[in-house]
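Standup, Tuesday
Yesterday: got the pipeline producing structure tokens again.
Today: sanity-check two examples.
Blockers: none.

Example 1:
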Amino acid sequence: MSFDRLPYGVETVLIAGLTYYVVNGIFYQRQNDQYVVVDTPPNAATATTQGGMTVLDMNGERFYVKNGFYYKRNINGEYIEVPKPAGL
């Protein structure tokens, strides 16, 4: 399945040097002028929070991604911006 554009709210993530676009937990990659659905990369699983953040579980750690920024949640439930995870 391929599309010429992705819907609003797409998150861009870089995993193992490859660019993926994530919408509602579905991964896409750009091939020529189309976006193609691809398998979830190894060691990465996603979901979307009510706040519109993409949840990225990678190598046993949970990250939240929004607008290209990465966050972790502290014990009080607050989102703290963190550097891009290693391997992305």
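Example 2:
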Amino acid sequence: MAFVGLNVGNLCQERSKNHVSACGQRKKSIAYAKKKKNTWETPTTEYIPTEMDFMGWTPPPLKEDEFTAIVKTAAEAADERKGRHIVALRVAKLTCVTTFFLYISGGSAPQLRAITNLVEERLKEEHGMTTRYGIPGNPASGWLLLDYGDLMVHVFSEEQRKFYDPESIWQHGEKVDLSDVVSPEGLRKPEEAMEYGLNTIDEDDDWSLS
């Protein structure tokens, strides 16, 4: 799993002020969960109540969450670079590592890079945001990550997206409605696009200048 080796305490402290106190309450729950057999080695499909559930803490409605607009900016940029199967989940009650995940599929290494480049550009221009760890990874690996703290943008190849199946791992997250900023093609899974007679991910497009 991608979370192995992360310093959860430091990540919690770097979160926005609105979430720091809540994250502090999650440390014991996360430490306990890591001791449970297979909790981190295999996808978790069963929701495990945490201290925050018993505290009665709830995040604000999605429309009132300041990061929702930022998520939509990133999703719209990905759609412009023909990203497919664009999905955003708010996981504020499930982890203190981040608040939102944005998942995007691309058809080639150059396209993955083109998507991440435009997302970085738009978030910097419109929201003054830069990633915390610089280089998002190697496009040839089929998985790039842009870490903005409260938002983590994952750009996958189709193969890696199916292999890691992140939506199943975080299936209890709140799905963000992106229909106002992402095209119908951008929202569909590649196999659904084929059913509708649409082109799937454009593997042959020239992304060298993107």
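Quick observation on example 2: The first strand starts at residue 84 and ends at 90. Confidence is low (pLDDT under 50) at residues 1-41, 194-201.
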